Each structure stands twice: as structure tokens, then as C-alpha cells.
């Protein structure tokens, strides 16, 4: 009897051990140990590439260095080098450091296989941000059967400096775009390792907001990223606007000017400079804002040409923007929204084409100035991205209009949905933002938007039971989803605005 009981206990223990969620998994580099909390397995601070320091500063990401034993993956890694630029950023990472190429994984606690995967790229103008920010937290997605990741990538001068000496030393004879290559390296890591967390490498959705959305559109044209993702989500931003991708020669000149102004004569001087000194030089008045480069390698041709020729990754796309990406003051300055002031602003911006602009924006001045400011900055490029991609693959467009509510300290609600307002709603992370006094209506909007996103991540189509039908943008009539308390498809009747900007983009001196 004793032997039988002992055998039974051992069998039961073995069965429990096999059924228990694995907090230790093997990935490239070695074994890592995460933790389980509230039904979610979380792994934080996983290195996906070698630290880009010393001789690896301004080089393509290199393979991760192996480690011995089991590495704790229970705290976020460093955020990439950045200045404190945006007041709405809340970090859970320990420090700013060049050693920052880490990613984080949230996956359901109970063992499962072949789950859809979400890889989210943070925003911040390619100069700030971090995968540790609570608004991007992947736990809520994991509870819906999605393996969610956030990814760090090099920023600012460390991520996007182009320079003739860097171009000369690179085997591919180009420079810049190191941050985009970091993202591609993270996607390659996901392809090789995500099955260990229950994810399906054939069902990867890339997503991001603002600079993260720019990054998603960039990954869609990058040869090195082909086959690494199956779906794409873009929130407010794309590289198809007129001002966001510089030719390599222009970016190299900008890099030389930056180096000279900072007192560094050679690439060796730049490489040996303290990271903080470069960061402070980047923050000085007159210093450039480093961004994406059409380098002939990472971005091999003008992105608009790639999409127009149907050479991009032909994956389902869900994308859109918010109702108040910019304020009317970006067009009118301190002046009141009168017809005279608007006409004067159009004349200054567009010269002989002011009349065409007035016709395209011929409605309430306050609304027209707000829309023009938003279009010039971010909405036109996002529209162009969706419109061109829809010719090659399924695409769904949204227009997000829910203003965030009053703050807990009494500041009134915004007039419209400002830039980045939708992130917490889409990711079901309202409770992670302690600034606002969230209401039942906000939670309703979050449930709707998050359901659309989750459906798209799982099936490549946002539609699902209990949701208003969301037509593809190629379907005639009301085919843009207005996301608000009462979400519904509508016809924004905005084509004239974007056709005006299409014509502007053809002009050599497009503003």
C-alpha cells in the first residue's frame, strides 16, 4: 500500500508539474525566468541584440551575447538614450542607457500554443519613449489569448545619425536607420523564439502609435523585414508624408553639421564621446531632429513609390488617426478663428495655391484650421498610406473622436481626441493612467476599440460579434469607423482635402 501510494503521489506531482505554467523558458542567449501575476506570465528585460556600445555604436544590431545559468527576466531593461521631451511619458524602466535593446513579453499563464502575437513599437518622435510605459502594457491583451510584446529601439542621434564616414565603413554603404534595424532584429527574434511563449510566428501583428506607427509603415517597405509579420496596425502616422524621410545625402550633411557643432571632427571622436555628451548636444538649440533616412538599404526607395508600385508587404492593415492631432493654433497662431485670419494663413502657407486650399477646407474656420494642422503634420501621410495599401491588400480605416475626460485634479476634458489619446483605450489600459478620471463611457469606448484590435490581431479582420460592422476602405459609401461612445461607420467626405495635399506633395517646394 505504501509503495502504491508513493507511486500515485509521484504521478500526481509529475502531472501537476507538466500542467503548471512555465516561468522559465529558453531563448536565444540562454534561459530566462519570468513570473506569473493575475493569470499572465510576464517576462521583462529580455535582450534581443548585443548592447550597441563602444565599437557597436551606430552599427547594425549584432547577435545577443549568451549568458550562463538562468537570467532573471522580472524587471524592465534600460530605456534608450533620450532627453525628457514629453510630459505624458511614465517609465517603469530603471535608467537611460545605451545598453537598451530589450523587449518584454506578456502571455497567458496557462500553457497554450499557436497564439496570435502583437509586437508594439512605442511612440515619441523617434527621440523618446520606452516599452515599459504602462499605456503599452500587454497584460490585458494576454488575458484575451494574445502574446503581447513591447520593444525598445535606439533613438535620436544614437538611432538615426547618418554620416559619410558611417556610410563608408558599412558593408551596405549607407548609414542611419539603426532604430529601424533594431525593430527588424526584434521581429527576427520573435520569429525564432516566440513559440517558447506559446506564440505563433506565422501570426505576428506589428503595431504602434505616432513614431511607432511611422515605424510600422517603414517595416512594411523594408526588405530585411519581409516575412517577419502578417498584419499591421498604425495609429496616427506614416512615412508617406512630405517631410519625414530625408535622402541619404541630406542626412549625411545634417550629421556632419551636428558633429562639427558638437566639437567632434571624426567618426572616432563621435564613437568615443560619452553618450551623455552626445545626448546633451542633441538637445541644444539648432540641433537637428534625427529621423528616418532613404538610405538605399533599409529604406531602398521613396516609400510612396514602394506603395504605389505595390512592392510593400501585402498584409492586412488597420490604421487611422484622431480628431485633434493638432490644434488650430498651429495654423492661426494666437489669432482668433476668423475667415480673414484663416485666408491670411493660407496665403502664407500656400501662396498661389491658397484658393485651392480654401476650397478644400471651406467650412467652419476653427474646425478647418484644426484639420489642416492635423493633416499637414500626421493625418495626410496616414491617409496616403491607407489609400495606397488598400489597392494591394485588405485595409480598414478609423477616425477616433473620444476626448479624454477631466483629470483627477480638476482640469477639464479636451475639446477633441488629441494626439496619443487613444492608446490606453486600444490596449485596454485605462487604469494604468492615473491622470484622468475615467468614466463608464470611457470604459465602453475602450471595450469597443480593444475588441476591434484584438479581432484584427487574431483574424486579420476587426469585425466580430457584438460590434458595429466595419467595412474595408474599398467598399463604397460609409467605410470609415468613427470610434467613440457610439461607434459607427461613416463617410468623412474628406477626399478633397487629401487630394489637395497630394498635389502639394508633387511640388518641389512642398511645405
From TrEMBL:
Enzyme Commission (EC) number:
3.1.1.-
Q: Which SUPFAM superfamilies match?
A: alpha/beta-Hydrolases
> Where exactly are the transmembrane stretches of this chain?
none
Query: What class does this enzyme belong to in the EC scheme?
Result: hydrolase
Question: What's in the keyword line of the UniProt record?
Answer: Hydrolase, Signal
For this UniProt entry, the molecular function terms from Gene Ontology, in alphabetical order, are: hydrolase activity
Which residues are the signal sequence here?
1-19
Carboxylesterase type B domain location, by residue?
23-488
Source superkingdom: Bacteria
What family does the entry list? Belongs to the type-B carboxylesterase/lipase family.
- What name does the UniProt record give this protein? Carboxylic ester hydrolase
Its ancestry begins with:
Bacteria, Pseudomonadati, Pseudomonadota, Betaproteobacteria, Burkholderiales
Amino acid at each position: 500500500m505504501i509503495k502504491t501510494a508513493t507511486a500515485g503521489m509521484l504521478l500526481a506531482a509529475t502531472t501537476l508539474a507538466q500542467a503548471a505554467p512555465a516561468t522559465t523558458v529558453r531563448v536565444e542567449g540562454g534561459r530566462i525566468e519570468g513570473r506569473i501575476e493575475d493569470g499572465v506570465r510576464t517576462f521583462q528585460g529580455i535582450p534581443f541584440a548585443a548592447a550597441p556600445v563602444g565599437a557597436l555604436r551606430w552599427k547594425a544590431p549584432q547577435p545577443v551575447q549568451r549568458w550562463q545559468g538562468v537570467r532573471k527576466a522580472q524587471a524592465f531593461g534600460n530605456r534608450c538614450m533620450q532627453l525628457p521631451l514629453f510630459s505624458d511619458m511614465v517609465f517603469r524602466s530603471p535608467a537611460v542607457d545605451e545598453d537598451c535593446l530589450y523587449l518584454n513579453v506578456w502571455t497567458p499563464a496557462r500553457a497554450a500554443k499557436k497564439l496570435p502575437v502583437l509586437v508594439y513599437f512605442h511612440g515619441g518622435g523617434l527621440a523618446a519613449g520606452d516599452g515599459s510605459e504602462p499605456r503599452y502594457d500587454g497584460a490585458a491583451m494576454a488575458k484575451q489569448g494574445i502574446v503581447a510584446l513591447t520593444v525598445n529601439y535606439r533613438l535620436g542621434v544614437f538611432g538615426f545619425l547618418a554620416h559619410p564616414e558611417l556610410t563608408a565603413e558599412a558593408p551596405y554603404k549607407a548609414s542611419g536607420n539603426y532604430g529601424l534595424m533594431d525593430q527588424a532584429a526584434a521581429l527576427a527574434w520573435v520569429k525564432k523564439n516566440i513559440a517558447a511563449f506559446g506564440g505563433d510566428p506565422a501570426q505576428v501583428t506589428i503595431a504602434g502609435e505616432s513614431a511607432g506607427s511611422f515605424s510600422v509603415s517603414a517595416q512594411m517597405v523594408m526588405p530585411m523585414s519581409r516575412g517577419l509579420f502578417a498584419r499591421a496596425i498604425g495609429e496616427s502616422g506614416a512615412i508617406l508624408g512630405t517631410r519625414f524621410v530625408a535622402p541619404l545625402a541630406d542626412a549625411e550633411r545634417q550629421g556632419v553639421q551636428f558633429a562639427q557643432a558638437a566639437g567632434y571632427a571624426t567618426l572616432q571622436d563621435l564613437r568615443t564621446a560619452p553618450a551623455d555628451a552626445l545626448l546633451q548636444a542633441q538637445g541644444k538649440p539648432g540641433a537637428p531632429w534625427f529621423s528616418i533616412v532613404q538610405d538605399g538599404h533599409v529604406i531602398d526607395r521613396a516609400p510612396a513609390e514602394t506603395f504605389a508600385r505595390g512592392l510593400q508587404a501585402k498584409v492586412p492593415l488597420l490604421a487611422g488617426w484622431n480628431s485633434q492631432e493638432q490644434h488650430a493654433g498651429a495654423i492661426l497662431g494666437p489669432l482668433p478663428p476668423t475667415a480673414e485670419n484663416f485666408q491670411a494663413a493660407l496665403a502664407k502657407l500656400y501662396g498661389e495655391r491658397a484658393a485651392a486650399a480654401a476650397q478644400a477646407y471651406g467650412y467652419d474656420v476653427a474646425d478647418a484650421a484644426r484639420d489642416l494642422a492635423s493633416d499637414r503634420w500626421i493625418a495626410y501621410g496616414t491617409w496616403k498610406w491607407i489609400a495606397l495599401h488598400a489597392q494591394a491588400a485588405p485595409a480598414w480605416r478609423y477616425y477616433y473622436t473620444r476626448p479624454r475626460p477631466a483629470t483627477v485634479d480638476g482640469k477639464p476634458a479636451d475639446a477633441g481626441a488629441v494626439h496619443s489619446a487613444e492608446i490606453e483605450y486600444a490596449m485596454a489600459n485605462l487604469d494604468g493612467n492615473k491622470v484622468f478620471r475615467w468614466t463608464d463611457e470611457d470604459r465602453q469606448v475602450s471595450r469597443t476599440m480593444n475588441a476591434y484590435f484584438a479581432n484584427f490581431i487574431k483574424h486579420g479582420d476587426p469585425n466580430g460579434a457584438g460590434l458595429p460592422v466595419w467595412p474595408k476602405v474599398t467598399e463604397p459609401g460609409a467605410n470609415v469607423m468613427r470610434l467613440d461612445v457610439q461607434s459607427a461607420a461613416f463617410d468623412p467626405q474628406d477626399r478633397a482635402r487629401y487630394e489637395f495635399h497630394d498635389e502639394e506633395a508633387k511640388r518641389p517646394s512642398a511645405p
